[in-house]
Amino acid sequence: MAPPGPSSSAALAATSPAAASPAAVAAAAAAAAGSSRRDPDAAVALLHAAGDDMEALAEAIAEAAFLDATPGEHRQKLRAARTRLRNLLAAAARADAADRSPHARSEYSVDDFERLTVQYEKLNWRMVSKPGGATVKPDDFYRLYALHMQATRGDVEGERPMWAERGGLDFEGRSRWDAWAALRGSDPPKCALRFVRLFHEFSPAALYKDTRAAVLGAAAS
User: Fold this and answer.
1) Which of 59, 78, 146, 157 is deepest in the core (most CB within 10 A)?
2) Residue spans per domain, the chain
3) Once rounded to an integer, what is the mean pLDDT over residues 164-169?
4) Are 136 and 127 in contact (CB under 8 A)?
């Protein structure tokens, strides 16, 4: 009688008293995984299931490396998956570069704080739509606002805004209050330096047009 294969071992582990043993379960799972790793159809299915998840796709490609020695459709699908991963990585790198601020520096000075606090609200911030036709600014605006307030006034006081003057929820007031309240207890001088850093480093995507170069150039002169 032939010894049981990996799938039989898994079934035996599930039905025997040893099934309650973590070691037995792990051994059965390892045996099943070892079998599927050499199955071309299963390997291709993993490549397909990974979709555009770069981490999952990289793992599936590593598992399917044995297909390099299998001429035909399976190997072509492995090569196509590698091309897809390269394209995804390149797109991610481009997106990261687009999000990276060209104004970032290695060091910042709190001496720039006062001059920059009168500029950040004047920047051409993008608007984000909210229910009911209301709009708010990107999160980086409210982070700057909160750091400004915490640095100059300390902890937020009063109740969280609820209603806007023209009716409906006060999304703008609530966004400002929430960001400020999140800094409760933070050291004001440190918040001033954090403000300067964030002003330089927030993503240009938060603005319709990034005009910080002129502002920062004037601050440096």
Assistant:
1) 146
2) 6-99, 110-220
3) 75
4) yes
pLDDT tens-digit readout, 119-129: 999 999 999 88
For the chain, give the number of residues: 221
Specify the pLDDT at position 93.
78
Helix, strand, coil percentages (3-state) for the chain, rounded to 5, are 65, 5, 30
Contact 206, 125 (CB under 8 A): yes
Backbone angles phi, psi at 109, to 5 degrees: -120, 135
The third-level CATH classification (topology) of the domain covering 110-220 is: Acyl-CoA Binding Protein (1.20.80)
Contacts 24+ apart (CB under 8 A), 114-120: 115/218, 115/219, 116/195, 116/196, 116/199, 116/215, 116/219, 117/148, 117/152, 117/195, 119/199, 119/215, 120/144, 120/145, 120/148, 120/199
Name the 3-class secondary structure at 38.
Answer: coil
SS3 162: coil
